[in-house]
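User: Structure please.
Assistant: Input sequence and predicted structure:
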Amino acid sequence: MNMKTRLLQNIALAVALVLYTAYGKAQTSSSFSLQFQKEMSPIPLSGRAFVILSSDTAVSPDIPDPFHPFITFGMNFRNWNPGEQLLLNQKNVDFFLLSPDSLRGYYSLRVVIDTDTTSSILEQNGTCFSDEIRIYAEPGKANRFEVEIKHMLSGRGFREKKNIRLLRVESKLLSDFYKQPSYIEAAVILPNSYFEDSLKQYPTMYVFPGWGSTHTAATRNNFQQTRYGMTGIGEEKITVFLNQDCSYGFHVFADSYNNGPRSSSFISEFIPAFESKFRAISDPHARFLTGQSSGGWAALWLMVNYPDTFGMVWAASPDPVDFREFMHINLYAPDANLYYQSNGSLTPGIRSDKITFPIREWIDMETTMGNGGQFQSFEAVFGKQGTNRKPQPLFDRQTGNISPTTIKDWESYDINRIILKQGKDIKDKLDGKITIVVAGDDPFFLDLPVRKLKETCEQTGINADIRILTEGGHNTWSDEIRQEMHRKMDDIYKNNRSK
């Protein structure tokens, strides 16, 4: 066989292999054809579609999170009309855990349609979804699954009651930033005596809820009222339960390049508007801050940056307050990487003996879910604006390598560095005003940065009550904790009332 013949045969074999591969992929590709009728929505929909599957058909697929990861495909769409088909396949979706072409066997399936991508909260009015169905992805065939979207969530908005009022304060600062009317929203929970004595004034407790909760949560049941001891504990107070939701996650009331002047608008616009509308005492010693997780970070941030405005902060399991211990990663290290540890193993995203969930999978999950995930939320608050007007990425999504330029921008949001830098200048203003409670087994390693902050407070002589509980996970609240928090608030208010 001469060289020319061998070359022609190799070319023919290569072409055949390409054709076979393309044909094989076409034959084994899975696609999802979604449709809704005008009875559900008479107008076109725009947003992001999610196909969520469970390989265990006894389990109902739901919105994925680190503790409940589900196979998910996500795709943005615009102007989807009633009766039209919306097709999702390998070519047009982001995917988590498996790709459409990797499906084999039986799955339970549900489709969720997010119609408001300006919010990070998926379960809200206007969210559409299908019934749960069972499918079988047959190997070697082009599987096409037709799914009807039949339901739209409603009735999940703010439910105003006699003692729970909606407060929406239009912010000029935010409106100028977004170039459209923008508001700061909150649920105002009033004590019963508010309606009995028209002259009585009250201290205020500002509450910043944890990830996924907004001001509307305070109107659905008593969970939030109970968690923060809004009624029946200590001196009567007005509680302001705030909304931190935005398109990139939670803005946590910090001024930022991506979310705008959030703390400035809160201090200069929201608080004066609230105190003029309700009978709240306009005195720093009658204003208190508390919050959980992301809300705990927000409460602590406002205390450290506006110590003359508030009397005390009680931060429960706050998000990282020291970037040397960010999900147990030192972001300042020269070779910092979010995905891999120094020994080459994957970095865990949660602390658990039962669940393995690397940060790399967390990022894949968030990418599939679109804007508003936890890591993008951090990037939006702490970093500058990148391309396409989106937050500057902290790390390379493929390799996990931390950007030295971006982490430099983050430094001004490192609460521990702020206290270290200001040292004695801020000591007198913060003395006796900080309480932080976190569990040593927090699933997001949040005890580690708190330990660093505790060391700093001890070094600088700041009188701060920082506790690392033996256990408790991500929820450190108890009846004893609630009573102590309110007792501290009451003591600060009473001791300074006559001054």
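Residues 386 and 449 are 27 Å apart (CA to CA).
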